Amino acid sequence: MKKVVKLSAFFILLFSLTILSFGGLRAFAEDKVYCDATVEEEFSTNEILVTLSQRANKNKIYTASDFSEINCIEAKEITKELWEKNRNINRIIELRVSCSNKKTLLTKLHKLEERDDIYCASPNYFEEFSSTQVCDERASEQWALDAISLPEAWEITTGSKEVSVGIIDTGIDGTHPDLKNNIDYLNSVDFSKEGEYESNPLIDKNGHGTHVAGIIGAVGNNGIGVSGVCWNVNLISIKVSNSKEYDTSRLIKAITYAESVGIPLLNLSSVANMTSSTLEDAIKNYSGLLVCAAGNDGKPLYAVNSYPATLQYDNIFVVGSSDSNDKKSSFSNYSKNHVDVFAPGKDILSTFPLALDSSGYKVMSGTSMATPYVTGLAALLKSYKPDITRDDIKSAILTRTDLIEDLKDCCVSEGRINALNSLKYFIHTHEYHYKYRDNKFHILTCICGSTQGTLESHTVRKEDILMPFAFCMDCHGRLDLRTDIGQGILSFTPKNMTKNGSYYLSNGILVLAEEDIEGYLNGTLIFSTNPNNSFEK
To answer: Which site from 86, 126, 248, 437 is most exposed, i.e. has the minimal number of CB atoms within 10 Å?
Structure first.
């Protein structure tokens, strides 16, 4: 995968002093440059670079207070030394702001563009200097990373500390160097209550919970150990046992606790031989997504008692195990109707308590290992799109699997998870659609349906376009009306026509004659490609 680093101020300066066109900028007028960056691009969510216009006060020293409309925290002039020598140069200022995501930053950036004293504004882009593998020393032993396209997915997102994942298990080793930076020490809790052991959610006497935690969120690219699905995530240890067994009451307490503190994702890499109405009520009351193991009996799920996997609730996501050859693991339970998806679960290297193994790592197999790959992917999706629902997560994973012949009759999705494809489920293609009426008016809409600038309801004369661009509220992409629309009108020859003169351009744009509008609206418009231009119903 590619290593991503920040573009240094030095290179920014070189680019800016030549033509002042950062990546993603497009000139719309002689004295103004607008940014057409989208949320799909890689840039800092806390920094904006601005170039002052010639209208700016040449003697003014700008501070954060001069950018109060975006709640600027700090303003640092990159060109300070050059400006002190030559007051006629184009001045570049780096602004630090507080934003939670790219969309918010672009909103602030567009506010700055309205100012006369700003020539252009741009995000602080991340640039790729070289292609390299993940630097974690044992990442090459993690066959599952490439199998589910994680290196490619990490080019889009590596997770977020804003996303919390509850791990209902045997605890997590809170001292592990590959985990400690991603552990939520404050909200972790111990429901095990086993007298011979110390009550502490961050002590794992068994190893199972620490192994699961590493699959979800071992810190990635830190030069040691392994990489979790999420390099950045908030892991909450919800300890229910110090051994392989625990009772129903602890599980009920664990799920109830997760709901009470608002944990959106729960990993349950275990199964029970029986259930109770109280447990089922606790699961029903949980508003997040409970990702659970299918079990290791090697049988159809309906033939075994494997709870809560066999419960048919919307908030349960059941995972089976596949191996490095994309075959169903021999031990994995399966079901065309009750197991949702498969994930790598055989011979999985992950973190292990230092007190039990001085290396801190161990290879384990089971649907217990497959389950956290799905939970980790769910967290990765939520870090990229924070407002998605559990149904959105399930759809993104289920509909974007790699279809595997060996798994065709083993699960609902008929395949094994693919992290990159699931992320792409939430990346829309930025595309504008235009329609022309009488070859004089056009209506602009973005395919995502959130256009601002020239709104869906606006009509703008092509002879006198009043606004230079259309602006999509969802992805913040922009369309240059003067070039894109102009070329669309002038460069295409009509081919299919109606008797009244309406026609489609070769790029799909429809030009309607007044007489054909009613036919277009009610779906009876007739086009002909006959050389003699005859029309028959």
So the answer is: 86
